[in-house]
Amino acid sequence: MRPSYRWRIGIGVLLLVALGSGAYLTRSRWLPWCQSFLAHDAKTVAATEEHGHDHEHEEDESLGESVILTDQAIVNLGIRSARVSPGAYWRTLVIPGQIVERPGHSDHRVTSPSDGIVSRISVHPGDTISPDDELFRIRLTSEAVHQAQADLYQKSQEREMVRAQRARLAAAGDAIAKERLIEIENQLARIELSLTARQRELLWRGFTEEQVAAVTRGEFVQELVVRAPRQESHPKHLKNGPLAEASHDSSDGNQRLGEVQELSVELGERVQAGQSLCLLAHHHALAIEGHAFADEAPLLQRAVRSGWPVRVDFLEAEAAGWSRPPDSFAIRHIGNTVDPTHRTISFWMPLENESQRVLANGRQILLWRFRPGQRVRIRVPIEKLESVHVLPAAAIVRDGIESYLFVQNVNRFHRFSVRVLTQDRDNVVVANDGTLLPGMYVVQEGAAKLNRALKSAASGAPPGYHVHADGSLHKNSDERE
Q1: Domain count, the chain
Q2: Confidence of residue 243 (pLDDT cuts 50, 70, 90)
Q3: Of 88, 159, 172, 254, which is most buried with the most CB atoms under 10 A?
Q4: Within a domain: 317
Q5: Is 374 in the same domain as 445?
């Protein structure tokens, strides 16, 4: 025998001895598995002889706790499963908030342009108004207004007289000295200045250009019509910003519809110049106001510096006929003072409202999507978690100190213990530690029901059924017959 063959034989013997020693030393790990496998194989053979099948019926209970349900039971329990795959999740700070009116843009108070008596009220609270609609009629009682009209008419007559005199002097030709013509021109210029001042005064008091022209002709105005002001669309920098799409506006052009929120006067009441007549509401431009505790201010500031989008839950059911609310908002302002009573800091974000016009009983009614005073839930991002499993809150069931979820394999549902990183009202975040593999079907709804079924029933197949190796549930042969 060659020496090389001897070496090979010796090395082979040493390997066999090493493998045997390793198997003997680790027998506590693999021996129970072999025994379970042999028991499982014997169970499969017995089931095959009993039911006439040549495939596996039951899985080993040592593979994990599981429950087997029929197709009808799955439907009755409302079990819903979906594939899982790791992704990103934003941890958020949940802050209560509400929708408020945006100062300087939501409300418009209409005041009386002059002293007088309310002779007509053309609107009522809740009425929808358009720009230039008639609101009130004021019978003028101000002596200053009447005097301004008289002065305007007097100056207009003086102007006509001076113009006629200038025309006569111009017709005389060289017989009239040029100094006299210059004097007449200067007098006419002074009258024009005084006339313009009287016209501006009446316009400032609420007269229209047509009414001023009528006063110039001697037709004095005894009653003023107060009309709805023109509410122009607000600047672009006050909109939701690039983080969200603005809601649709149902008004025509840039003019926005409004509604009468309250009346401040009664018919026949004497009012003074500047006195409030009514309050008009233009809810196209609102704001979302939140109140954070003082120690949460650094988190708000970090979100603003980083440009992280803020999500808002409007706490309302899906309404037909309205567009989807914006997905994200940008914080526009953080308060610089702390409320001494509640120890909170206010911050707000602009909100574009949506409206619809409806005709009911011959009247136009304006319906709003969002309303001041409506409660919301603000979610300010504070941390981004990468490569995690995000599941609905109903996918996790807690039993003592453990958190479980169920993985569906046809009719068999395996229960797995998982590590929950964080949880909010709607979602639960599970660590991507290898417990869940991409592509697994995880139960999204009904985990609590499955857990109760697991405790109350055996993990084997229901009576009259057997389980195939792929996890599907089938009736026994004799049952089908």
Answers
A1: 4
A2: very low
A3: 159
A4: yes
A5: no
User: H helices of 52-70, where?
Assistant: none
Q: Which domain holds residue 461?
A: 62-79+396-480
Examine the domain organization and report whether 257 and 284 are in the same domain.
Answer: no
Give buried/exposed letters for 322-333 (b at 16+ CB in 10 A, else e): eeebbebbbbbe
Distance of CA 432 to the CA centre of its chain: 31
- The candidate with the shortest Cα–Cα distance to 225, out of 108, 110, 362, 105, is 110
Q: Are residues 308 and 450 in the same domain?
A: no
CA-CA distances (angstroms) from residue 369 to 201, 250, 408? 42, 11, 41
pLDDT (tens digit per residue) in 120-154: 999 888 888 888 889 999 999 888 888 888 988 88
Give the predicted TM-score (pTM) of the model: 0.62
Q: What is the C-alpha separation between 441 and 426, in angstroms, rounded? A: 19
- Identify the pLDDT of residue 35: 45
**Could you read off the pLDDT of 389-441 as tens digits, one per residue?**
999 999 999 988 899 999 998 888 889 999 999 988 889 999 998 888 888 99
How are beta strands 285-293 and 107-111 bridged, if at all?
unpaired
Q: Is residue 454 a contact partner of residue 417, using CB atoms and an 8 Å limit?
A: no
> Could you give the angle at the alpha carbon of 113 between the alpha carbons of 285 and 111, nearest 5°?
35
- Axis-axis angle for helices 209-216, 143-172 (nearest 10): 60
Q: For residues 297-322, give the mean pLDDT.
A: 85
Residue 273 falls inside a structural domain: no
